[in-house]
Known about the structure:
Layout: H1 2-12, H2 19-24, H3 38-44, E1 48-58, H4 68-80, E2 85-98, E3 102-105, H5 107-110, E4 115-119, E5 125-134, E6 139-144, E7 167-172, E8 180-191, E9 202-205, E10 217-220, E11 225-232, E12 243-247, H6 248-260, E13 271-275, H7 278-283, E14 292-297, H8 302-306, E15 313-317, E16 320-321, H9 325-333, E17 340-347, E18 350-357, E19 370-371, E20 382-385, H10 388-394, E21 403-407, E22 423-427, E23 430-431, H11 435-442, E24 448-455, E25 458-465
Antiparallel strand pairs: 1-2, 1-4, 2-3, 3-6, 4-5, 5-6, 7-8, 7-10, 8-9, 9-12, 10-11, 11-12, 13-14, 14-15, 15-16, 15-17, 17-18, 19-20, 20-21, 21-22, 22-23, 22-24, 24-25
Amino acid sequence: xxxxxxxxxxxxxxxxxxxxxxxxxxxxxxxxxxxxxxxxxxxxxxxxxxxxxxxxxxxxxxxxxxxxxxxxxxxxxxxxxxxxxxxxxxxxxxxxxxxxxxxxxxxxxxxxxxxxxxxxxxxxxxxxxxxxxxxxxxxxxxxxxxxxxxxxxxxxxxxxxxxxxxxxxxxxxxxxxxxxxxxxxxxxxxxxxxxxxxxxxxxxxxxxxxxxxxxxxxxxxxxxxxxxxxxxxxxxxxxxxxxxxxxxxxxxxxxxxxxxxxxxxxxxxxxxxxxxxxxxxxxxxxxxxxxxxxxxxxxxxxxxxxxxxxxxxxxxxxxxxxxxxxxxxxxxxxxxxxxxxxxxxxxxxxxxxxxxxxxxxxxxxxxxxxxxxxxxxxxxxxxxxxxxxxxxxxxxxxxxxxxxxxxxxxxxxxxxxxxxxxxxxxxxxxxxxxxxxxxxxxxxxxxxxxxxxxxxxxxxxxxxxx
Length: 466
């Protein structure tokens, strides 16, 4: 669509000529000098809103204020006058996607906000409430009550149709300067934005995106939303031409979840994978590195029932390339639970396509969320059994069981060596395979404790006296 529009513009201007002539051709009339994005902006900008938030933060009074000498000199009236909390203001952008008042923005724009105010381009203001927030994808859906009014909204475009070089517009609220429009191109697709979100899968653009643009619209030239502006790469805090937008196919899923009153659940395939490197591709007899090799298949999982096996190289899902773990997570995230996908794999040099019905991640075994007690090094730590459902909620790689640390309160002894997301794999030389086993182990009173913990694939052992 965009390429057709550009071709028509160049033809209308008499510019469909060889490269040398193109560089030397001048506009022949006033109309050729007035080509503009203005009609698109006028149509789309009413659906892009400014978001203002207030967060009340309780302040801790310095301990010296409770000193009797201090109180004697300054009195209780002075103490009562000290502020107990402060208000933190923040701003961002959002996009109306439903006429009845559903607005999508970034989760970090509204996180922990006590008040959210939506301001439209025509200066109308509405209070808003969070319907759903998903920190894994840094997305949130808000709702405003506009009565019988139909609000202006944008339609979503399939982000898989976006190509590098496509022209795009970014609309948002940079630095609180109210609605601002910038233009650029799609610089890359399937780009990793580091640890910005769990999916790590973005559209990259050189359209200027600055603080305050978060949650704003990235538009194609057809006026439909291709992404939600989410982050920038910058050493200064300002735009350097590297911006990241969450693709609209993820946005569509979270809006669907908000309308159903559920959370965004990524379908479960039931495999563990590893990116195919150059060395691995050579050992597999592949002409070049591509896809991910399946290193684990969960029993009775969708992948197992469809016939996928350990050692298969997964190349595409629904004809879209899967070249690393982030790409696999993203492709699954855009699918609905209980939908059917096409998985193309290569097995022993032969390519085959398998039809897989993906399901909701099961909670097997049950999580048994437990806070450990007693006189032992893990007192106060909350643990639970790992399962595909827990892995999806915590946005971590599924496929490994065991006991995971869910919470480590500040001040407990274990905070010196444990953090949430660690696996407790051994106590005093014995394997920990479940919460029940761990509870039994910490119920003993040995003279010495040995706790083995797996973090980032590495196992460390900590020793303590009883």
